[in-house]
Each structure stands twice: as C-alpha cells, then as structure tokens.
Amino acid sequence: MKVMVIGGGGREHAIIKALKKSPKINTIFALPGNGGIADDATCVNIGAKDISAIVDFAKSENIDYAVVAPDDPLVLGCVDALNEIGIPCFGPNKAAAIIEGSKVFSKNLMKKYGIPTADYFVFNNASDALEHLKTAEIPVVIKADGLALGKGVIIATTRDEALDAVRSIMEDKVFGESGNNIVVEEFLTGPEVSVLAFTDGKTVVPMVSSMDHKRAGDNDTGLNTGGMGTVAPNPYYTEDIAKVCMETIFLPTVNAMNAEGRTFKGCLYFGLMLTPKGPKVIEYNCRFGDPETQVVLPLLESDIFTIMQAVTNETLTPEMVKFKDSAACCVIIASKGYPVKYENGFEIKLPATTIDSSIYVAGAKKDGEKLLSAGGRVLGVTAIGENLEKAIEKAYDLTKKVEFSNGFYRNDIGKRALKAYNN
Ligand code: AMP
Ligand code: GLY
C-alpha cells in the first residue's frame, strides 16, 4: 500500500517509523517531512496546510491511505477533502476537529454533557472580560479560543497579568483571529497526564499514558514550549484513575461528539489534571500529541496501520491495541534560545541507535549528506527501558552522544514522574 503522512515534525517521524514496521505498507510519503524523516520516507515539498496541493498529489500518486497528523490541516478540513476523492484517512473530519480548533466549543461541550473540567466564562469583547477579571479569583487562566501554536494559554498569577493578557489577546490580537473570543477559567492544581486514545466513534481504546514537560527550563522554570520531553507510562495515572477517566471523560466525550453530529474518528488527546476533586480535562487535541507520540508509539506492540484502518472502518476493538510492559523517555534537544529566538543551520551528528532507542527529527534539513538544524525543537531522543528509571538513564546516555553545538535540553525529564513512586 502507498501511504502518505501529512506533517513534518518529531511526531510525524515517530508515526512514520511505526508505520514502516507494517507489512502492509510498501511506500510512505511525507508532506513535507524533514531532513531526518527523509531517511524513512520520501519527502515531498508540499506544506501541511496546502490542502489543494495535498489533494492533487494524492490523486497523481494513487495514494491508498493518508494519515493527517497536525492540528492545522485537520481543522482546515484536509480529511474531508481527501475523503471526497475517495482516499481513506486517519484523523477527524473538520466538524470533529473543532474539539481542538475552538476552546469555546470544547468548554461548552463539556458543560452540556457534564464532563469534568475547570469552571469558566466565555467573552467576545475585551471590556466585559476586563470587568470580570477585576474581581475574579487569582491565579486565573486565560485561553484564546482558536489555534495559537500551543501558546494561547496564559496562567496569570497577578491581576495585572490577567488584565494584560486580555488586552494583548483581544485588543492587540497577538494570536490574530484566534483571540476574537476567550475563555477565562479556574486555575486547577494536580499532576498532569496526557492520554491519547484511538477511537472510531464507537469504541475508545486509550494508549499508554504519558507526561509532557512544557516549560523550557529545569524544574519547570522558564517559558512554555511545545514540550521539552516526555515519559510513558505516567505513574500518577493508576488503574483506578484510568477507570474513572474512561467512565467520566473518555466515553462521555465520544458520545457527546456523536450526539452533536460530529463523530470523532482518529486519535483523541485528553490533557488531564488529576485534581483533589478528581480528574478534569485541561484540553482536548484532535490528534497525536507532540512529543507524547515519541514515547507512546515506541511502546506499541501491535501493528499501527491495522489499528488505523480499523478506526477508519469503524471496526476498532481493544484487543487490537497492545503495549509493551516497559517504559520510555524522550528528551527534546532544542536550538539555544527556543522558544523565543534561535538560529538555524548548525550541523548535527547523530549517534547510532539500538533496537531500544530512536532519534526522531523535528526540525532539521539535509544539505547533501549533512543534517542541519532548522527549527526550535530539533530532535527527540527516545529510549525504552524495563522501567522508567532505566528508560530515563538510557535516553540521557544517548542524548549526550548527539553532536549539536547549538542545542540545549532539560536535565530533569522524568524526575517528577519518578517522585510519584515515593509518595
Ligand atoms: P494547553 O495549551 O491548553 O495545553 O495549556 C498549557 C498548559 O497550561 C497546560 O499543560 C497546563 O499546565 C496549563 N493549564 C491550562 N489550563 C489550566 C488550568 N485551568 N489550571 C491550571 N493550569 C492550566
Ligand atoms: N504535547 C502537547 C500537544 O501536543 O499539544
């Protein structure tokens, strides 16, 4: 089969490496892919948001199946456009991708169907929002309604910060049209868990849980990033909590989307917070997480393509999805200065990997035989171990062998997760 994967980051590299193991696939295209993905798939210089070029390419190459990985093309209706020309896809259609595309939609969905989440207010103009924030409890969380490259969430720890956030989102439009509406919500506390789940709209099969590390610096200091590392499984996510989440969050969400006439098929990402009052939804994503995918898929034992086809055909069963009883850690190496300002074009030399490790390339391009940095997050160094401690140790051993003079990484990925064992 000929498969194409839309996207060009570390997540897509991990998806492609997993797809490569499927005996059913003989050709993989990546649109646009990147300099590292080029070792595992044929990269085609078409942007992930260029839906008409994607459709033309799929037609001309007689593509059999498409995996649409990033949020933008999903929210823009890439799956609808490909389905229209008869190409089956992994990923939700536009109507369902709104679960990530609009925070106002997802918050209202949770309220309507009683799915636990932070209390919130929606505003469509700055003056009402500013008035509300004069008396709101602090800290408070302010979220732009639409997609904002993962930067549309501001946790205000002072009233002035909250007021500034509203002004910059709604008046200065720092996130463009994404900030026409905002959600102002209650600040929650507790360990965070990411759960990615396969769903065909009827059956929900959660994958192994994981933990992201969003801040740029050690001990969760510095600015928010797209994610500086992950571990799986997440030890805070016990079997009992998993049961509660299935009953109060996962199934109700899939059923709610059906009831709204927006059946979700694909990978539904639940960003959860385990609060003293039980698990609550922080965010939904309509896709695989990045860099969660870089620890979850290496632990998947089953053939991912069989699962994806079952999602498309609505024949998904829990038995199809088996995970190794091991742990994984992914350390992101980013360009110095990320997430603010950084330079590209530095040479990267990768060490050899083993059966238990992978280096996923997120932001790099090929220059002849050389690999040059070309992005904020550049590499995701993943290792599997028999337990979390071993996985972390192996991931850092490999990270230290990467030659990239302009790179930096956090030294404490997984440290918080290990603490769970001592509680
Ligand atoms: P998001 O971009 O929605 O993933 O949010 C980024 C981060 O902000 C999350 O991973 C949480 O750490 C934090 N966050 C979002 N909403 C809340 C909330 N209501 N209370 C506390 N922290 C939050
Ligand atoms: N790691 C968070 C995300 O993929 O949005």
Provide key terms for this protein.
423 residues, binds adenosine monophosphate, 5-stranded parallel β-sheet, D-amino Acid Aminotransferase, Chain A, domain 1, binds glycine, 6-stranded antiparallel β-sheet, 3 domains, Rossmann fold, alpha+beta, globular, Dna Ligase, domain 1
> What is the number of E strands?
24
Uncertain ranges = none
Helical fraction equals 25-40%
Query: Distance between termini?
Result: 49 Å
Shape from CA axes? Answer: globular
Q: Any idea of the CATH topology of the largest domain?
A: D-amino Acid Aminotransferase, Chain A, domain 1
Query: Which architecture of the largest domain does the CATH hierarchy give at level 2?
Result: 2-Layer Sandwich
Describe what you observe in this structure.
It is a single chain. By secondary structure, the chain is an alpha+beta fold. The protein folds into 3 domains: 2-93, 3-Layer(aba) Sandwich (Rossmann fold); 125-180, Dna Ligase, domain 1; 192-422, D-amino Acid Aminotransferase, Chain A, domain 1. The protein is built from 13 helices and 24 strands. It has helices at residues 10-20, 51-60, 71-76, 78-84, 94-101, 103-112, 126-133, 159-171, 239-259, 293-296, 304-313, 388-401, 415-419, and strands at residues 2-7, 27-32, 42-43, 65-68, 89-90, 120-123, 140-144, 153-156, 182-186, 192-199, 204-206, 211-212, 215-217, 221-224, 229-232, 266-275, 278-285, 327-335, 347-348, 357-361, 364-367, 370-373, 377-385, 407-408. Strands 12, 15, 18, 20, 23 and 24 form a 6-stranded antiparallel sheet that branches. It has a 5-stranded parallel sheet with strand order 3-2-1-4-5, sandwiched between helices. It has a 4-stranded antiparallel sheet with strand order 6-9-7-8, sandwiched between helices. A hairpin with a 2-residue loop joins strand 21 and strand 22 (370-373). Helix 7 (126-133) runs antiparallel to helix 8. Glycine (GLY) binds next to loops.
